[in-house]
Amino acid sequence: MPIEDDKTTIESGAQPASEAASAPKKKGGMLVFAGIGVVAIVVGIALALFVIKPMMSDSGGSGDGSANVESKSDGHGKKSKAKGHGSEALIHEISNIVVNPAGTGGSRFLSASFGFELESAQLLQEFQQKEPVIRDALITILSSKTVAQLTDPKQKEIVRYQIRKRVSQIMNTESLAGVYYTDFVLQ
Length: 187
Fold this sequence. Notes:
The protein has a 5-stranded antiparallel sheet. The chain has helices at about 1-10, 15-55, 120-130, 130-145, 145-150, 155-170, and strands at about 70-75, 80-85, 85-100, 110-120, 175-185. Residues about 60-85 have low confidence and may be disordered. The chain starts with a helix and ends with a strand. By secondary structure, it is of the alpha+beta class.
């Protein structure tokens, strides 16, 4: 008969002592993991808002006054006046250059934008007139590079040098003060 009593207790919904003790632990463990998840999300959002965003923004400057930039948008890119190191320079941006890197068979792409620092307003006007030719040169140079070349920091500097050299040839000048990556997304 004692065996039947055990059956009836289990069937009637009562739990043995070992199962009853583990049920609150499972609930408590789930609450701990949920709490950790919520804290991780809050910390991630706070980090993004208060640390990463100011580092990435243009207005967060370093405080040394080395670059004051006024942006004016034109049809294709941006032209900006930048004051730095005591002289005025103009920056013209060519944006949204999209290419398939060499050797990918079209399965990957690179989206890049560049800022070109020019030394005079006359050079800026010539640059804007020759922008289609310059865009073609950028596409040619970037599409000839492999993914490995585009991700290696040393190779990126070589690409910057190649772009500067080719654009200087197109513009028939050595007055190209700088070439800057303003956007670079490889997928």
